[in-house]
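Input (structure):
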C-alpha cells in the first residue's frame, strides 16, 4: 500500500513510520524526515504540489498541524491557515487527483470536546459552561453544573459527546474533523478521525514555552529549576506514550469503515502527580499557581472504541514513559543549550 504522511517529519510521524515500514511510504513536509521514506518538500497550503503527491496514494495520514492551546490565542491567523485551510487544501488535492486515496487518517485532538461532560448529583449528565475569567481569578477551579451551580464530577470523554471547543486551536481541529468526514462520501474515501489525548515521549520538542507539559517539566528538573504547576495542580489529563500512538495510526490504516476514535489510556493523572513524579527524581521544588487562558480542567478518554475497533490497549505506564522520555532527552543532547526557556 502506498501511504503518504503529510506533516510526517514531526514527533508523531517519526514514531508512526516504525509501524508502517512494510508499506511504500512517502513523507510530505517542509523539512525532511529522520527515517527512510520518499520525501517531497512542500507546504500544506500548496494545493498543486500536494495533489501530485496524493495522486496514486492508497492512504493519507494527516499530521500537519500547529499544536499549542495557549499559543493559538496569540496566533489566530496562523492556526486558521495551517490547521483549517491546511485540511481544506488536502481535500482540494484529493478532489483533483486522478487516482484518489481510499483512506484518510486524521490526527485530531481531545481538545474538540472542550470541558466535556460531567455528572451532577441532581441533573445527571451536564456540560458545564467554560470557566470565566472571574472564576479563575478567584481560584474557583472546578467546573459547575450549568443548572444548579453545584460542583460536578468529570466523565470520561466519549466520541458521541457534544463538541464544545474552548480555544482557537481546538476549533481548528474541529474544522479539520468536519471537513475530512463531511467530504469523505463525496470523494470516495473512508475518514478515520483519531482524537489524540495528551501525547508525549521521545522526539517531542522540549525547549519551547509551548512544549507539552511532560518534556517541559523534565527540562526544568534537569536544569534544577522548580516546576511551575498551574491552577491547584488537581486538573487532570490522559497522557499517552507516542509509540502507542504510532501503532494505533498503523492499525487505523487497516480499518475498512469511517470512524471517529479516541486515542488515550483512559487513566487520569493530575498535573501535580506528574510534577511530583518528575520533581522527586531530581530533588527540585514544585510551585503551584497561576493559570492559562483556554485550558480545560479535566480530560480522560473513554477507550472502548479504541479497544474494539483497533484491538488496542495502551502499553506504557506514565512512570515508564516519563523515564524513557528523559533518557532520550539526555542521550540526544536536547538540553545542551542552557539559554533556551
Ligand atoms: C495537549 C497538546 C495538544 C493536544 C491536547 C489533547 C501540546 C503542546 N499540546 O494540550 O496539542 O491536542 O493535549 O488533549 O502537546 N501545565 C502546567 N505547567 C506548565 C505547562 C502546562 O501546569 O508549565 C498544565 C496545563 O495547565 C494543563 C496541563 O499541564 O493543565 C497540560 O498542558 P499541555 O501539556 O500544554 O497540554 P494541553 O493544553 O492539555
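Output (sequence):
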Amino acid at each position: 500500500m502506498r501511504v503518504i504522511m503529510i506533516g510526517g517529519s514531526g514527533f508523531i510521524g517519526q514514531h508512526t513510520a516504525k509501524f508502517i515500514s512494510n508499506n511504500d511510504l512517502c513523507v510530505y513536509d517542509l523539512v525532511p524526515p529522520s527515517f527512510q521514506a520518499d520525501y517531497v518538500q512542500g507546504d500544506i497550503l500548496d494545493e498543486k504540489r500536494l495533489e501530485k503527491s496524493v495522486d496514486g496514494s492508497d492512504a493519507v495520514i494527516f499530521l500537519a498541524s500547529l499544536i499549542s492551546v495557549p499559543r493559538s490565542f496569540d496566533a489566530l491567523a496562523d492556526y486558521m491557515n495551517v490547521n483549517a485551510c491546511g485540511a481544506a487544501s488536502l481535500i482540494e488535492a484529493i478532489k483533483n487527483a486522478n487516482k484518489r486515496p481510499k483512506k484518510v487518517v486524521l490526527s485530531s485532538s481531545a481538545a474538540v470536546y472542550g470541558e466535556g461532560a460531567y455528572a451532577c448529583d441532581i441533573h445527571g449528565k451536564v456540560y458545564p459552561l467554560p470557566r470565566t475569567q472571574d472564576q479563575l481569578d478567584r481560584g474557583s477551579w472546578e467546573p459547575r453544573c450549568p443548572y444548579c451551580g453545584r460542583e460536578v464530577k468529570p466523565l470520561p470523554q466519549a466520541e458521541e459527546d457534544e463538541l464544545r471547543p474552548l480555544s482557537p486551536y481546538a476549533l481548528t481541529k474541529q474544522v479539520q474533523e468536519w471537513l475530512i468526514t463531511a467530504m469523505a462520501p463525496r470523494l470516495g474515501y473512508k475518514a478515520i478521525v483519531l482524537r489524540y489525548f495528551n501525547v508525549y515521549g521521545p522526539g517531542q520538542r522540549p525547549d519551547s514555552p509551548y512544549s507539552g507539559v511532560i518534556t517541559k517539566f523534565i527540562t526544568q528538573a534537569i536544569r534544577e529549576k522548580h516546576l511551575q504547576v498551574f491552577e491547584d495542580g488537581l486538573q487532570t489529563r490522559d497522557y499517552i506514550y507516542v509509540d502507542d500512538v504510532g501503532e494505533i495510526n498503523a492499525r487505523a490504516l487497516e480499518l475498512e469503515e469511517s470512524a471517529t476514535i479516541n486515542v488515550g489510556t483512559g487513566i487520569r493523572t493530575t498535573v501535580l502527580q506528574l510534577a511530583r513524579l518528575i520533581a522527586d527524581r531530581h530533588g527540585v521544588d514544585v510551585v503551584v499557581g497561576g493559570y492559562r487562558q483556554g485550558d480545560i480542567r479535566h480530560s480522560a478518554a473513554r477507550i472502548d472504541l479504541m479497544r474494539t475497533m483497533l484491538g488496542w490497549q495502551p502499553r506504557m505506564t506514565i512512570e515508564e514513559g516519563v523515564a524513557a522520555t528523559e533518557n532520550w532527552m539526555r542521550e540526544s543532547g536536547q538540553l545542551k543549550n542552557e539559554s533556551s526557556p
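Notes: The pocket of uridine-diphosphate-N-acetylglucosamine is lined by residues 67-69, 109-111, 197-198, 210, 212-213, 216, 228-230, 235, 237, 271, 292, 295, 299 (CB under 6 Å). Residues 76-96 form the longest helix (21 residues).
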